[in-house]
Amino acid sequence: MAVYIEHYGPNSYAKGPTTLFSTDLYLSTEKILLYYNQRFQIEFLFLDANNFARLENCQARGVNEINFYINALLTKVSKEN
Questions:
Q1: What is the pTM of this model?
Q2: What's the rounded mean pLDDT across residues 55-59?
Q3: Residue 66: what are its φ and ψ, rounded to 5°?
């Protein structure tokens, strides 16, 4: 399934297309667009956590400790934005 979106500027000139893909053939176009928007919000959250909260400096070795560290950093970053 593919979704094609044409972006228009304030003058009604086309600014460029976006094509979104999904392997689920039964998803509606609205759901595909929603999933892509949510995905990029999550990626920006990880980018902020990596840049501003030093995500890469975790020295924990256990799975539970790493999960706690990441969740604490993501909570900190999301509260600041």
A1: 0.52
A2: 74
A3: -65, -40
